[in-house]
Amino acid sequence: MQFNSVAYVFGFLPLVVAGWAMLRRTHYANLFVASASLYFYASSEIWYLVPLFVTALLDYVIGQRVYSARDEKKRRGLTAFSVVANLGLLSYFKYGPWLTSKLAPALASVGLAIPVISVGLPPAISFYTFQSMSYTIDIYRGEFKPYRSVVDYISFVTFFPHLVAGPIMRARDLLPQLAKDRALPSTEQVSMGLFMILFGLFQKIVVADNMAAVVDDISSATQTSQIGPGIGLIYAYAFAIQIYCDFAAYSTIARGSAKLLNVELMRNFATPYFASSPSEFWQRWHISLSTWLRDYLYIPLGGNRNGTIATYRNLMLTMVIGGLWHGAGILFVVWGFWHGCLLIFYRIVPVDRMLARFGAAGRAVSSVLFFHLVCIGWIFFRSTVGELPQLFRSIMALPQVAFSPASHMDFFVYSWFIFLFWIPIVIFDFLGWRRNGEFTDVFPHLGNPGKIAVALTLIYGIVFFGRRQASEFIYFAF
After folding, report:
1. Element (H or E) spanning 259, and its range?
2. pTM, 2 dp
3. At what angle do helices 388-396 and 359-382 cross, to 10 degrees?
4. CA torsion 336→342→348→350, rounded to 10°?
5. Which are the catalytic amino acids?
6. What is the 3-state secondary structure (H, E, C) of 343-395?
7. 36-88, pLDDT tens digit by residue?
8. What is the pLDDT of residues 224-274, one digit of tens each?
């Protein structure tokens, strides 16, 4: 089931909120929400529940045993088993088909035959694997105590607002909220929750889906003909807007839906394209994943504690593994490697701090510069190996547009289309950036006339500019 569907907005969500409101002070409230979450997840394929239950029940049992064990060797062994089992299950579904399809022809040439794994990728497996695995690790570290109720734990793993595409919640932040009897949300919470859902739908239906049409059009063109000068840059811009508005939309709708159940989910985005350095970008982009990688990978590897070279190694490993988390394929590795290089380069040459000496203008230049470096990374993330040469040749040929603009009208048509949809996002994000958050942080301070005006603007935007052909959220594939 999709957040951007009539069935979710006007059917599933209201029914779940109403059911929880009637049961909220009983043991059955979590059972009801957990059952609804499982239905939400398995509405397309019921077999998706199998790896979900294996992951959840495995870590539930191991978490209890790690907590009760007194022998350090046993505790470490149980935790290691949880990590290996979780990553093994994730690798089988996510990387098995890709690896075996690549290895089978090579091995066949030397007389060895291996079966090619052919199995569908369960949605959200990367998200719930990391979330469930962190539960066991936190118990091992002594940072969290396990909950005895299996229903409460299943509710934490499967909580439908964030199940499919995050944010990746830690047990210590979400499980206590779900396990207690919660009061009905306040009027302010309901108002904020509904606005978040509306704003997320605007981001997805109006901006992300329209940019997806541009990206898909250019991608298709690379398969049949040569794309014109500068079109590769249009591709990069359009996908940068698409993936941001698509993913931020999911996170915003998830947070808004949770508020209607009086549950707070963590912020996952904070105007990332205003970042002026890679470290700032990762503090603002997919915050739940970047903090997870920091706490469970980068710091355990040694972080920045063992000298400069070791720090660079740890940064690169973290980013490459972060790239692999998104999916199987060499270009995901390249994307992670690119961001690892940026993190290292900006430590050696602090471009942002150098430009900051020139005040606000320098800060603006550094943000624009880094945004374009991010866009280069998005080309690797979205394209195929076969598309890359055309896209980069097109970018390098951009000066030709200035010398003969009449011959390249497709560039200007695409540019105006993107510009028109970029304007509202830049305005919304600028207002959010001034509060060091998102536009949703501005909404409560607008006053009733301002709130009504913004809500009507978003509704009319969806009605008149929303793309009628709904598309799946990008991160459903991860």
Report:
1. helix 231-259
2. 0.92
3. 150
4. -150
5. 326
6. HHHHHHCCHHHHHHCCHHHHHHHHHHHHHHHHHHHHHHHHCCCCCHHHHHHHH
7. 999 998 887 888 899 999 999 999 999 999 999 888 999 999 999 999 999 99
8. 778 888 999 999 999 999 999 999 999 999 999 999 999 999 999 999 999
